[in-house]
Write a structure and sequence with these properties.
single chain, Rossmann fold, globular
Length: 228
Amino acid sequence: MNPSMHQPPLVIGMLLYPAFTMLDLIGPLTVFSMHSKLHLLWKTLEPVASDSGVAMVPTTLLSDCPEKLDVLFVPGGFGTEAAMADAELIAFLQSAAQRADYITSVCSGALLLGAAGLMKGYRATTHWAIHDTLSQFGAQPVKARVVTDRNRISGGGVTAGIDLALALIEADYGPEVALEVARDLVVYLKREGGQAQYSAPLRFQVAARDFRLRYRNDGSRPYRDTGR
């Protein structure tokens, strides 16, 4: 791979679909945008609402997707199940994958790739809550934040998309460029975390929360009821 900053920008197709998770998309998009030509892909050019209600405007019709992609990227979201039943979308993924150097996903986007038959025989990861579902599509579930198997790269839940995108930048441009991107975004180039997808600080915070909840009836002022 050429680490030069003068390397031509990556051509990246990022799929949109109703009720995708915004951070699944925006995290990698922000990383990629520094060294890429991005295509936000959907059936129309009308805004596509995420599962938080915030919408993204597609830039490229599925039918106008570039003939050659360096990266095909699929986010997850609460709309994944409906997308898996969309025959037009599945056909597009099958076609686009044949002309993409890397086929990538974050969170439940791996299941959408699986529904298109693109994960069979590959090691992969996804959000911890649906991790075991990967095996239903012939994939081998791996407990890691980012998993690379040949030209398939999958990320775990939500923010792991940033790690995935940084890994791709490092593979194509080299570690110095990837480190510079990570510094600009104020993130670690390679973060700690297994597929409980808990970093060490988060594990501590969860344990501390559980301790507090266990003793919330000790006569002290109760916590605000959030309904969770």
